[in-house]
Amino acid sequence: MSGKTLLEVEDLRINFPTRIGQVQAVRGVSFSLGRERLGIVGESGSGKSQTGRAIMGLTPPQAEVTAKTLAFDGIDLLAAPPRERRALRGKRIAMILQDPKYSLDPVMSIGRQIVETLRTHERVSKAEARDRALAMLEAVQIRDPARVFDLHPHEVSGGMGQRAMIAMMLIAGPEMMIADEPTSALDVTVQLDVLGILDRLVSERGMGLIFISHDLRLVSSFCDRVIVMYAGKVVEQLKASELRDAQHPYTRGLLNCMPRIGFERHPLPVLDRKPEWAA
Amino acid sequence: MSVAENQATAERGGTRAVAVLSSIGRFLVIAVTTYLGLLAVTFFIGRVIPIDPVLAVLGDRAPANVVERTRREMGLDLPLIEQFYIYVKNALNGDFGTSVLTTNPVMTDIRRAFPATIELATLGTLIGSVIGVPLGVLAAVRRGSLIDQIVRIIGLIGYSVPIFWLGLLGLVLFYAKLQWVAFPARLDVVYEYTFTPITGFYLLDAAMQGQWDVFYDAFRHIILPASLLGYFSLAYISRMTRSFMLNELSQEYIVAARAKGLSERRIVWAHALRNAAVPMVTVIALSYAGLLEGSVLTETVFSWPGIGLYITNSLQNADMNAVLGGTIVIGSVFIAINLFSDLLYRVLDPRTKVE
């Protein structure tokens, strides 16, 4: 971990009351984040996305979020009033969602959506906001920012849309970023471009990054540390470079599923889920 | 700018203009086809119904040679296709024949009756949208709350209570008991000789002529039936707004808007409602078109001399020219409103922009 701690999570629990009883999406997750890249991997329903949303304060209203500690830069997030949490969102903690096709407002131009973030958090003139949005679009390597500024989300490709999303979320200069499967909806060729841009901006600005993904290989090559979640719990926490030496059978099982060039993988091994992992 | 660039810009402008023109052309083709279809249907109805137009004009005691002559004069001996051609030609000139009942040209009657209906329907739709849309938004945002329940009950009553019953109830309460509104008619009898309508929309005419006492009187007459129609479109519009809003509020871009730190108010009104506005256009336009057909029951209860009442009276008197003429006019308005809402759709939703 480098530098001071940005985010402290201890014993985070998220419950959804339903008609058939409580559904425990997250059951006692603890970790801390400095100005580093932390990967959270796990399969669908493991609670990784809900963990990210709980940090943002974006869990659905019926969810019950509890934690011993959930603090960002010393601010107790669970005790903070809604107004203060809202001021944090976008300004100090930002989030990138999975698919730009759905996460950008279809009837608002890309430029206006970026300007909107900025003007929510800073008092800047329209002209200055536009200039900074254009500069931000350039920073995410969009070649013709002035043209893209006026386009609507449906007029750009997925990769371009995700860059616009990154621009929209980074323009107010957040210190921490939660990227929830930011490349899963993109073409493989574009994934690396977008990751590269994200990587560069995060390290240039010295931000903390939580990278949520189901792609173990991607996470291990991109992050400093990796948390493996299963059924709402952290089953293993380790340095990305030491992933090969993972101890937990679930992590090992996931690693075994990865194809390697030159080796036959038939039949693909099936995860042998043991009830005690979820205990 | 170099010559080449100039040329490129001009060419782009040219293709743009062609695209816009072709889409307008497509619009016109659709409108004309639909209109011809409408004419064909009304023509066909006029020929198959068991009402003899000659009999309707002459009565059943006319001698055979007179009947035969009248039949020829009315062009009923011509081949069907030629009759249709004449029918279309006349209809395009606004000539729907003469009303047997009023002995006026049908178009003259419609010109008098339709503005009354348009005025009522417009005011009703305005009331329904201005109140119904915010109510629907609130119900969606505070789902399950008291306001949501209230909107549900308003909707339920609007769907299930017959309009004439509510109308009579309103008359008993607001006219007979409280005397807040005027009796069923468009204007007090006193004004019938001092006031000359120009457009036929009394509120507008009175305001244009600066006759504010007439305006006030017309308002006192229209407000109850308009509120009633407004209530029924409100019930529908608020329910639809609620469901469109719930759909938009569950989209990912709303999560993204929250992640940007936007206020709830901005998320609801600037993002969710702006998106929900696209399908709402169709809902409001259709509800408006429905009211323009003339709500016969409302017009009857409130003695409102509108198109619904006119067509119903004509129908009861086998006055086919009037019925078909009225149908064509209403159908044309329906087509126009649909095209207009299509156009608005294109303005509101950038995804449907002309490429």
Instruction: Give me the side-by-side strand order of the main sheet of chain A.
Output: 7-8-9-3-10-11
**Helical proportion of chain B, percent range:** over 70%
Give the radius of gyration of chain A: 19 Å
CATH architecture of the largest domain in chain B: Orthogonal Bundle
CATH class annotation of the largest domain in chain A:
Alpha Beta
Give the overall average pLDDT of chain B: 86
Beta strand % of chain B: under 5%
Query: How many distinct folded domains of chain A?
Result: 2
Distance between the termini of chain A: 29 Å
In round numbers, the mean pLDDT of chain A is 89
Largest interface: A-B, 32 and 21 residues
Indicate the CATH class of the largest domain in chain B. Answer: Mainly Alpha
Topology:
The complex is a heterodimer of chains A (279) and B (355).
Chain A: E1 7-18, E2 21-33, E3 37-41, H1 48-56, E4 64-66, E5 69-72, E6 75-76, H2 82-88, E7 93-96, H3 100-103, H4 110-121, H5 126-139, H6 145-149, H7 158-170, E8 176-180, H8 188-204, E9 208-213, H9 216-222, E10 225-230, E11 233-239, H10 249-257, H11 275-278
Parallel strand pairs in A: 3-9, 3-10, 7-8, 8-9
Antiparallel strand pairs in A: 1-2, 1-4, 1-5, 5-6, 10-11
Helix pairs in contact in A: 4-5, 4-7, 5-7, 7-8
Chain B: H1 3-48, H2 53-58, H3 64-73, H4 80-92, H5 106-141, H6 146-160, H7 163-177, H8 202-209, H9 212-249, H10 252-259, H11 264-292, H12 296-301, H13 307-316, H14 320-348
Helix pairs in contact in B: 1-4, 1-14, 5-6, 5-9, 5-11, 5-14, 6-9, 7-9, 8-9, 9-11, 11-14, 13-14
